[in-house]
């Protein structure tokens, strides 16, 4: 899809930044253990910025609510937020801000909004609710992409039609949703089989382009225990299934969907998520799997590899052959499902060991499970 699209129309791309994002909406601004009321206010967003800075996360997104969505005016920020101060505070800590907006709202105020927020120091927009691909919608997308590029703003196209290679034509488009992502777990029953979807989508949807799936749940549930809870959402499947998403998904702008408090309580997993790069990928291989059952993907940067595997609700054991490695000895850091993960989905085991290209490793994935590993040359 990418190769067939029209080539770059914006020229210099050196200003475009990708990375990981601390996200507010999925976890419903759900921080705790603080002395202020969590919500869409200065204290909460400074807490998200602090979390991002402490964990080397490049961005924080301000999702729905920073402007009044009922008024359709994104040039007016709600009185609870001093946006220039948040931008200043973020930049003082090496964290950039991304603003959410509805497609038609941005389009109605396009150049004024791009000029205002670019000059303020905003990095880009996450735009939402296009939900169609007729000619009018496609023309709007091109118009927004061109204007955003003029003001050096990146775009994450949420609530959007399937990718068609537009990120080649406008490289400031750095991600697309176009996927039945983690947000659906806030209101979907277990009958919506996310585990089957997770091992189907990579073979189909992901072939068209990158995905803004928004993984990273630190509350994880077995098939019997899963509930759709809006304010404290959980994932279907295990903790390691969530960690695997950061390798399996092609995602140059990757959300950490849970709240800073949850990540601080699970610092080992947070550190591992942040250690997995999502840019400058040189090579991708699907090592094994079967559509609708399992998938194992490896991604290479330099001499290092990152491997993630997922299964559906069927527990299975795989044998991972390290023959894809170059010559030498490598240190592996593996997060795999714990022995009790079939019932306690948050159970995981961390292992560190060395391998060569002649090595093999048996890895058991629990029901709804997975694994993720870094493989670094010694």
Number of domains: 2
Mean pLDDT: 98
- The level 1 CATH classification of the largest domain is Alpha Beta
The outline comes out as globular
From the helix content, strand content and strand pairing, which structural class follows? alpha/beta
Order of strands across the widest beta sheet? 6-5-4-3-2-1-9
Name the poorly predicted regions.
none
Q: Characterize the quaternary organization of these chains.
A: single chain
The helix fraction, in percent, is: 10-25%
N-C termini distance: 37 Å
The overall strand count is: 17
How would you sum up the major sheet?
A: 7 strands, parallel
Task: Give the H and E element order.
Answer: EHEHEHHEHEHEHEEHEHHEEEEEEEE
Q: Specify the CATH architecture of the largest domain.
A: Alpha-Beta Barrel
Rg for CA atoms: 20 Å
| Continuous helix count | 10
Q: Mind telling me the CATH superfamily name of the largest domain?
A: Aldolase class I
Roughly what fraction of the amino acids lie in strands? 25-35%
> In the CATH scheme, what's the topology name of the largest domain?
TIM Barrel
Q: Which characteristics define this entry?
A:
378 residues; TIM Barrel; Immunoglobulin-like; seven-stranded parallel beta sheet; 24% helix
Description:
The chain has helices at 42-54, 83-92, 103-108, 110-120, 135-150, 166-169, 194-198, 239-248, 260-265, 267-275, and strands spanning 19-22, 59-62, 96-102, 124-128, 154-157, 173-176, 220-221, 235-236, 253-256, 283-290, 294-301, 304-311, 316-321, 330-337, 348-355, 360-365, 370-377. It is of the alpha/beta class. 24% of the residues lie in helices and 25% in strands. The mean pLDDT is 98. The radius of gyration is 20 Å and the shape is globular. It is built from ten helices and 17 strands. It folds into two domains: 19-275, Alpha-Beta Barrel (TIM Barrel); 283-377, Sandwich (Immunoglobulin-like). Strands 6-5-4-3-2-1-9 form a seven-stranded parallel beta sheet. It has a six-stranded antiparallel beta sheet with strand order 10-11-12-17-14-15. Strands 7-8 form a two-stranded parallel sheet. The two termini are 37 Å apart.
């Amino acid at each position: 899809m990418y190769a067939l699209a029209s080539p770059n129309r914006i020229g210099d791309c050196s200003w475009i930044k990708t990375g990981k994002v601390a996200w507010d909406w999925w976890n419903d601004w759900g921080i705790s253990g603080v002395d202020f009321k969590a919500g869409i206010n200065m204290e909460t967003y400074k807490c998200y910025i602090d979390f991002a800075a402490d964990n080397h996360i490049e961005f924080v997104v301000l999702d729905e609510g920073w402007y009044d969505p009922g008024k359709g005016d994104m040039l007016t920020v709600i009185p609870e937020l001093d946006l220039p101060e948040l931008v200043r505070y973020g930049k003082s800590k090496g964290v950039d801000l991304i603003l959410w907006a509805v497609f038609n709202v941005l389009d109605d105020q396009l150049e004024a909004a791009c000029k205002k927020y670019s000059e303020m120091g905003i990095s880009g927009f996450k735009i939402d609710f296009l939900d169609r691909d007729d000619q009018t919608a496609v023309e709007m997308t091109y118009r927004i992409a061109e204007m955003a590029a003029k003001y050096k703003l990146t775009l994450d196209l949420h609530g959007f039609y399937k990718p068609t290679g537009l990120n080649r034509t406008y490289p400031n488009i750095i991600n697309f949703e176009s996927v039945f992502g983690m947000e659906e777990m806030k209101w979907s029953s277990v009958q919506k089989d996310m585990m089957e979807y997770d091992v189907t989508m990579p073979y189909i949807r992901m072939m068209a382009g990158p995905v803004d799936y928004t993984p990273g749940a630190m509350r994880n549930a077995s098939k019997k225990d899963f509930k759709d809870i809006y304010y404290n959402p959980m994932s279907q499947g295990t903790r390691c299934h969530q960690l695997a998403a950061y390798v399996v998904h092609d995602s140059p702008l990757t959300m950490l969907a849970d709240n800073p408090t949850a990540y601080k309580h699970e610092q080992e997993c947070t550190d591992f998520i942040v250690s997995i790069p999502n840019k400058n990928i040189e090579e991708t291989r699907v090592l094994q799997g079967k559509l609708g059952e399992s998938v194992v993907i490896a991604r290479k940067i330099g001499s290092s590899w990152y491997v993630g595997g997922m299964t559906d609700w069927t527990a299975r054991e795989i044998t991972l052959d390290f023959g894809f490695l170059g010559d030498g000895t490598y240190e592996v850091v593996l997060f795999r499902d714990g022995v009790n993960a079939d019932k306690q989905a948050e159970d995981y085991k961390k292992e560190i060991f060395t391998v060569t290209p002649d090595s093999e490793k048996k890895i058991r994935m629990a029901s709804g499970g997975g694994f993720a590993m870094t493989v670094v040359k010694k």
